[in-house]
Automatic annotation (TrEMBL):
SUPFAM superfamilies: P-loop containing nucleoside triphosphate hydrolases (SSF52540). It comes from Gracilibacillus thailandensis. This is Sulfotransferase family protein. One of its GO terms (molecular function) is sulfotransferase activity. It comes from the Bacteria. GO terms for cellular component: membrane. InterPro entries: Golvesin-related_Golgi (IPR053259), P-loop_NTPase (IPR027417), Sulfotransferase (IPR005331).
Length: 226
């Protein structure tokens, strides 16, 4: 059972903090098939409670996430930026991502400036509690409050750890919300990837830091035998 975007009140019910474009809808389908109650925060940043609440999340390489966002917007007619982004090349989109004259804050959903809010240090924003530049707070919250940080490029391993922690049935996964029209990362120009990584330097460091901790996660020892 899923409860969307509501306050967490029971420490027994974990909270999945969903950072956009990290495979969330695929996980929602998995959560719906569990007997446990699972909070899904789709439009909420991390929040610290007086009593301990168990959180988990997924991260994605920031360059991969930004490129996925570009192709997703172009493929989804109901997205508020669909018409505007459809007239942009990937290079033009990345130029908006890089434009530091545009404040990294939410604008009207159809405002083209919203590109930066949807792409720049998004994971740091969600995990810090709202500040895209507070990397250290994001790390602190993960260390203190998160059972698990999974990774889209280590999906099978991440799901295995989730099963070990929560005891959920993950026998079958139905891939949801995949943008079939997007190219593979190795076909993207290296200068575009580098430009995205430079402006997403907090997310890049957070991703690499969290992955280092994940690779030393005790449940992965038994994964090798599966």
């Amino acid at each position: 059972m899923i409860i969307f975007d509501k306050e967490a009140t029971n420490p027994e019910n974990p909270v999945f903090l969903h950072i956009p474009k990290t495979g969330g809808k695929t996980l929602w389908d998995l959560f719906e098939r569990q007997q446990d109650t699972i909070h899904v925060w789709h439009n909420r940043y991390f929040k610290e409670y007086p009593k301990p609440i168990r959180f988990f999340t997924f991260l994605r390489d920031p360059a991969d996430r930004v490129i996925s966002t570009y192709f997703y917007i172009r493929s989804y007619e109901r997205d508020p930026l669909y018409q505007k982004v459809n007239d942009m090349s990937l290079q033009e989109f990345v130029e908006y991502v890089q434009n530091e004259k545009i404040e990294n804050q939410p604008y009207n959903k159809s405002d083209i400036r919203n590109i930066r809010y949807r792409t720049v240090n998004l994971a740091t924003r969600y995990l810090s509690g709202g500040d895209p530049n507070d990397l250290e707070r994001a790390k602190h919250h993960i260390t203190k409050h998160f059972d698990l940080v999974g990774f889209t490029d280590m999906y099978r391993e991440s799901l295995f750890c989730m099963q070990q922690i929560y005891g959920w049935n993950i026998a079958s996964i139905n891939r949801k919300n995949k943008t079939n029209s997007r190219p593979e990362m190795d076909s993207i120009a290296p200068n575009i990837i580098q430009s995205i990584e430079q402006v997403n330097h907090h997310d890049k460091e957070l991703y690499e830091w969290a992955k280092h901790h994940f690779l030393n996660y005790p449940h992965l020892t038994s994964f090798q035998d599966v």
